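yo

u said u wanted the structure for the complex thing, so here. seqs first:
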Amino acid sequence: MNSSANHSEDLALLARIADGDRAAFQQFYDRYSGRVASYVRLLLRERGQSWRASDDVVQEVFIAVWRKAASFKQDRGDPAGWLYAITRNKLVDGWRRQGKGIEVDSIDLSAMSLAVEPERGDVKVSVSQALARLSQDQRLAVELAYFGGLTYEETAARLELPLGTLKSRIRTGLMNMRATLEGRP
Amino acid sequence: MSRAERPPATAAAGMGRFPGSSATAPSRSLPSHHPSEEQLLDLATAQLDLAARLVLDSHLSFCPTCAATVNDMAAVGGRLLATQPADAPPSPEVFSRLLQQLDELATAQQAASLLPPLDVPLPEAVRAELRPDFRPRWRPLLGSRAEIAPVLLDPGSGAQLLLSRLAPGLEFPEHVHVGSENLVVLQGGYVDQWGDFEPGDYGFYEDGSRHRPLVEAGDACIILTRLEGVPRFAGWRGLLQRFTGPR
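structre next:
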């Protein structure tokens, strides 16, 4: 999914981090901390929280990278996907601890957007393009509950859908996006 | 009672591992009991509390098929993350604080290395969430040949993560689950009406379900479990439980 060169470099860095290599940790941090911070700020803004809290979340994410690198499976893992899951988990854990719900009726669906910069290298289709190719039902579900700052329950409430239907749309949407991003029909 | 699990992936059901049986079947190398695709999606998209994530991550450490599924579901998010703008990094103090945390962690790990080693095969994904000096504090469970040790209490959901250690051949008392229970077998195994559970196998028991697990002969059965509530025992143990309160 990521360019193969980046993927190989990320794998090598994580293997070195797992061995306690701080120089590799700094390289991985330099590569991803800005992007993690951007994504965290986007989700914090969606929930009406100050982006200044993003530094604390970034710190939690990268200490988790250090501690979990040894459990990352080199032969089948995707480093960026792994990092994405860690980032979302740290955010959602924080919201649960703070009891931070969201007024689902206040969500402006038309204002949801992803700040995604153009991709370079061997990338043929961007995430935004892959998202745009989904049906509207799938796109909304994926934008709100997968990319965005809402839980499944909040998304289901906002879209007035049963939870099972929402999950099915997200699952199918992700499969379709992955196929598009990999250049499969 | 419904169970969210896939059909068994491998052969070798539970033959010959119970008291009185003479046959011996080869142990499986891959799990047979798995989370549902919905549960894997929940894991990949950060919908689970820490306790549930650790149980599922433990299953993934045994199961390349489920790990690949989660990988696929998270990959799109990874692509999104990798293409986020990088022109507004966190403040420089963040990395300084990280280095300080790494120093503190190294000190803690060095101190923990002087302690007796962990007496349970905890997966790396679980150890990474715990203090380096974590050691299970076993306590007997209702007088049976069973012990439990708390691991953590999820601060958001209130769910408990705990370890159970059950003696070989034990007929564990029948009990009803209060709230759901997710578990992964780390060592040994047990049998109930849903099958034969061995290392790596994932179990999900819904609220109100009941069973009476029979522990296999051989090794002690060690299980990592997420509980939403304290199970209620049947019979005289249940009466005792009501009078003394659950432990």
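Helices of chain A lie at 4-18, 22-46, 54-68, 79-98, 127-132, 136-147, 152-159, 163-181. Chain A touches chain B through 70 residues (CB under 8 Å).
cya
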